[in-house]
Design a protein that fits this description.
Strand content: 15-25%
Number of domains: 1
Structural class: alpha+beta
Strand order of the largest sheet: 1-2-3-4
Largest sheet: 4 strands, antiparallel
Number of strands: 4
Distance between the termini: 23 Å
Oligomer: single chain
Length: 156
């Protein structure tokens, strides 16, 4: 992918962590948690020594937003989905890992996000890739304008 000259700095790990927890209602999983260990050794995960955070996005309205089924967090459809009694708040990490998108954050310097991995139940969520383009500091490429896509979802 050809990166254009963007004037956006990459987000710090703390900023990404806050966004994942507060905006996407994700769950942070300690890197030493026994349930996470099997995921950390998948063949397609490179630079394991740079992993600095593990999160799972499992909340259905957020997944549907990132899949494009819901257009924006300001839409009536999203507000109704959030209020639906069908949306459970899970507490058990094994259950969360079974039903959610696992996000592993990577950093070369333990301060600024440098890469990520998406795994788990939802590996193909195009709009989360746009979001991470913004996190990594290159939201505009010749192929797409991730910044505008993420902003249209109401996340920026």
């Amino acid at each position: 992918m050809n990166k254009l000259n963007n004037k956006y700095p990459a987000w710090t790990n703390a900023e990404v962590r806050g966004f994942l927890l507060n905006k996407l209602h994700s769950v942070e999983i300690p890197l030493n948690h026994s349930s996470l260990q099997e995921y950390l050794y998948y063949d397609d995960i490179s630079d394991r020594d740079r992993i600095c955070g593990a999160f799972v996005i499992y909340y259905k309205p957020i997944i549907e937003l990132l899949q494009g089924k819901i257009k924006s967090i300001s839409s009536m459809e999203y507000k109704m989905a959030i209020e639906s009694p069908k949306n459970k708040i899970l507490r058990d990490i094994d259950s969360i890992l079974d039903v959610g998108a696992l996000i592993l954050l990577k950093s070369k310097d333990n301060h600024v996000l440098s890469d990520y991995y998406i795994g788990g139940a939802y590996t193909d969520i195009p709009k989360i890739q746009y979001l991470f383009d913004v996190f990594l500091g290159w939201p505009r490429t010749e192929e797409k304008n991730s910044f505008d896509i993420v902003r249209s979802m109401g996340l920026l």
